[in-house]
Amino acid sequence: MIDAEVVLDAAREVFIADGRIEVGELAQAVGVNRSTLYRRWGGRDGLLGEVIWSITAPTIDAAARRAPGEGAARIAATMGEFAAIANRAVHFTEFLRREPERALRVMTTRAGGVQPRIVDKVAELVQAEVDAGAMTLPLPVHDLALILVRITETFVYANVITGEEPDAAKVAQACAAMLGVERSTVEWERAG
């Protein structure tokens, strides 16, 4: 029996160190058989998805804590801050550079398991603003969260998708526009 947390901790450490995970090396480092890791996580992509999510969840929480304002402006600022953190993360940018197709598959598809959880997390943030009476919705919560995440992905993965540089400020601006927030009321202005 493997301790999944021990394996994930070791995999996260390796990923943060250089933006990659080799299952054989990881298995040897934690003292389990490579096939055990494949069975537990369904292959390298599954393990990468879990590792990336374990980094992403606290990153979204940090972005939400840092975001000023309330309601739609706060959500736009949160998405901009989340993008800025992602754009500064060397392990993340190195993974995108080295394995762009795998990175997009793991992070932007249902099969990768990361994007659906990001959407759920953003939906929770949006719902909290609605429950606080600070925001009304132009769409159902989940649909809106999906669109906000897709906007964010567009500008975070810009170098892979369009060859342009990632731009967190555009994330905040585009999310604000989607949410009907005037640019002047978005308090987030960091260069990503």
Automatic annotation (TrEMBL):
Which keywords, in A-to-Z order, does the entry hold?
A: DNA-binding, Transcription, Transcription regulation
Which SUPFAM superfamilies does the record associate with it?
Answer: Homeodomain-like
Residues in the DNA-binding region are 22-41
Q: Which Pfam families match?
A: TetR_C_36, TetR_N
Report whether Repressor shows up as a keyword of the record.
no
Highest taxon listed in the record's lineage: Bacteria
**HTH tetR-type domain residues:** 1-59
Q: Which GO terms describe its molecular function?
A: DNA-binding transcription factor activity; transcription cis-regulatory region binding
Q: What is this protein's record name?
A: HTH tetR-type domain-containing protein
